[in-house]
Amino acid sequence: MSKTRIGFALTGSFCTFRAVFDVMRKLQAAGYDITPILSFASAREDTRFFSRDQVWHTLEEITGKKPLATLPEVEPIGPKKLLDGYIIAPMTGASMGKFAHGIYDTPALLGAKSHLRNGRPVLIAPSTNDGLGNSAENIGKILAMKSVYMVPYGQDDYIQKPRSLVADFEKIPEALAAALAGAQLQPLLLGSLKKEGE
User: Fold this and answer.
1) Given 3.40.50.300, 3.20.20.140, 3.40.50.1950, 3.40.190.10, which CATH number is that of 5-192?
2) What is the reported pTM?
3) Are 182 and 162 in contact (CB under 8 A)?
4) What is the pLDDT at residue 196?
């Protein structure tokens, strides 16, 4: 039996990468065939969380594949029907704004657009400090898109960052299974994700 093929794209919410890497390991262990994909920023930038080389090495170590990080590398995803599902986690407010308005100018976004031509699911895990601000409009547009689903999300720090929203990354496997079956995992809104004492 062939494995379910998943594109897993990261955009530049670098503080969430550790949680995303953990999820990728779980999906790989569960038998998914994962192709890592990087936005331009996540492919090139050294940050206080990870260096560029650490990001690339970690993705190759988890998946056994070199990340796709250019527009020509991701363009064939749709025409060749290379994937069964496509995840963008984390997806920044900037990337959501572009996606909501049909601007596919990074590998993470063009890969999703190419994949959607086949009517196959795209799963988005938002991570933005402006989710209850200017990005709220874009989230609404994305929620209305056909074949696009979201990982349930909530406020990660409603006291210090009252407009900030972030997906519960631990729910990605469950949300992916639902999306592959054509359903949105519910409940979508989770309230506060901040744990007691944090």
Assistant:
1) 3.40.50.1950
2) 0.94
3) no
4) 47
